[in-house]
Design brief:
Length: 367
């Protein structure tokens, strides 16, 4: 099976999800009281940033697994995989951590930002924030540690898939969920492991006949979840995210298969793709931007969105040029070069873009 070469649609998904996260955090800053929606009713859909985490987790597994799926579920080199993953996430993450620590020290405390000390800096630099309690200098950073843990599990999941099949792989991913249980979803969110695995398994379906009506299947899978959230409200939903996450996963996996086969025009449009190319940097830096803008201009939602969103996007685009693309240029493997050849990008499993780019609700939606 040849992995899908249509990268544009997946970039569009990343871009729109990242934009939603920024606006979501603007909403939480202007209308505090999460998980209750204290803002106008028409903005209630903006309070569910946690669901963007689910989408990004599934997307991460999907993107990383495209290459192994096309090679008969062979990883293609553990050392090379680890090196590429480190080059992709660490330089930008550490640079954003320094920015966040500086903002926390000089201007904090701010919304989603706590003052930091040496211990906090070490915890976050080593990505131990989901295992060692420490105030967050950037409320979105928790998901980076989740992603790092999933990267460690990825080679094992590929091995199980190649030798024992899809059901066994999904079963293995549920082991930490069964051990920890729903009560353990504060801190490290164990249900993210089967969500990541759903994306991995979906990569093996993408591009393979028979071609099913994936867009309609996506709507079929998503409708009950959306209806339940709308019926029970955000407070109930927040207390049951463990189950909501798991039920939302199949809808996201189906969506990614649909996009990889036939992306909607919006997802492949140049502005949406461009937003997706800088979405990791946008995730890393949008919290300090939103916090500083709200501190200076107040908590008017229209004003905050009008100023903070374009500012964050511009800063993210510049930041991505320096801290995302430059490490690959120095390694003789530029991201721009990979994107110029979609078949090569697919052959690398879209690994340059499998990052999780969202933290739930100002770092407050972990459970």
């Amino acid at each position: 099976m040849t992995p899908p070469a249509r990268v544009a649609g997946l970039d569009g998904v990343r871009g729109l999800l990242a934009l939603y996260v920024v606006i979501h955090h603007c909403w939480l800053v202007c209308f505090p009281g999460y998980p209750a929606n204290t803002g106008p009713w028409w903005g209630g859909w903006l309070i569910h940033g946690r669901l963007a985490v689910v989408a990004f987790i599934v997307l991460s597994g999907f993107s990383l697994a495209l290459a192994p799926a096309g090679r008969g579920w062979r990883l293609g080199g553990l050392t090379d995989f680890a090196r590429r993953r480190a080059r992709r996430i660490l330089p930008a993450y550490w640079a954003a951590l320094l920015v966040s620590l500086a903002v926390a020290t000089l201007a904090g405390p701010l919304p989603m930002i706590h003052r930091a000390d040496g211990r906090i800096a070490v915890v976050y630099a080593l990505m131990l924030q989901d295992f060692v309690p420490a105030p967050a200098p950037n409320g979105a950073f928790w998901s980076i540690a989740v992603e790092a843990a999933l990267y460690l599990a990825f080679p094992l999941l590929i091995l199980v898939r190649s030798r024992f099949g899809a059901l066994a792989t999904l079963g293995v991913s549920f082991v930490p969920v069964l051990i920890a249980g729903p009560a353990a979803t504060t801190g490290f969110t164990w249900e993210m492991a089967p969500l990541f695995t759903l994306g991995l398994l979906a990569a093996g379906v993408a591009g393979r006949p028979p071609r099913l009506p994936w867009w309609r299947l996506t709507a079929f899978a998503a409708t009950p979840v959306i209806a339940l959230i709308a019926w029970r409200g955000p407070v109930w939903t927040e207390h049951h995210y463990f189950w909501i996450d798991l039920f939302a996963g199949p809808a996201v996996a189906s969506l990614l298969i649909a996009v990889s086969a036939r992306p909607a025009r919006l997802l492949s449009a140049r502005p949406t793709r461009g937003l997706g190319l800088a979405s990791y940097s946008l995730y890393l830096l949008h919290v300090p931007v939103v916090a500083l803008v709200s501190h200076q201009l107040g908590r008017s939602f229209p004003v905050l969105v009008a100023v903070a969103v374009p500012t964050a996007v511009l800063i993210a685009a510049l930041f991505a040029m320096v801290f995302e693309r430059a490490p690959f240029r120095r390694a003789g493997n530029t991201e721009q070069g990979e994107r110029a050849d979609p078949h090569h990008n697919a052959a690398r499993g879209l690994e340059t873009d499998s990052r999780i780019m969202v933290g739930p609700g100002a770092g407050s939606l972990r459970g």
